[in-house]
Amino acid sequence: MIQFNGRGAALAAAALLFATSAASAQQEPAPAPSASAAAPVSWAAFSGWKRYHGNCATCHGPDGLGGTFAPNLVNSLKTLDHDQFLNTVVNGKKDSNLTMPAFGLDPNVMCYIEDIYTYLKARSDGTMDRGRPAVTPTKPKDVAEAEASCMGV
Ligand code: HEC
User: Where does the secretion signal sit in this chain (predicted)?
Assistant: First the structure.
């Protein structure tokens, strides 16, 4: 009986911990829902795919897999958290003889940075395949409005 109570308490504590981490996880953009290339992805993941390839892939390679000039971000996002990612993109980084430019003043990057994070995180978590998502999602109206106001149009 005592053992059972102890186990129950431990489970309750674990459930509480899980609830807490699940709540804080909700702060992050939702990852793409599926591992299949043919499955639809969220607007954020699709937008991130597009913006990544417009602004980052020249150095970081197609699909986030790294290039001659910059590291593999599919690997980096296994250890970098959201804040470290943002900090690097906003302020740049130079830990080697290669330079990561600062994008903090570039609206073409900063207005879409959460989308780019969502895309790279989904690639890193293995929930999104290489290549263009097979299905193009519809841009939600509130996203279109937020984008226009961020871009100042
Ligand atoms: C001109 C080339 C270039 C472009 C364009 C570029 N990066 Fe980088 N990036 C680098 C280099 C080089 C590094 C490694 C810097 C170092 O060694 O300190 C890096 C590092 C990073 C890191 C840190 C990786 C780690 O493991 O610490 C992140 C995150 C990152 N870049 C994200 C981006 C994103 C997102 C974009 C597009 C908005 C982008 N980069 C565009 C060159 C680039």
Answer: 1-25
CB-ligand 1 contact for 96 (6 Å cutoff): yes
Whether residue 116 has its Cβ less than 6 Å from ligand 1: yes
User: Is 34 in contact with 41 (CB distance < 8 Å)?
Assistant: yes
CB 115 within 8 A of CB 123: no
pLDDT of residue 35: 52
Q: Are residues 68 and 109 in the same domain?
A: yes
23, pLDDT greater than 90: no
Number of folded domains in the chain? Answer: 2
* pTM for this model (two decimals): 0.80
Cβ atoms 33, 39 nearer than 8 A: yes
42 and 6 in a common domain: no
Q: Which atom of ligand 1 is nearest to the CA of 76?
A: 26
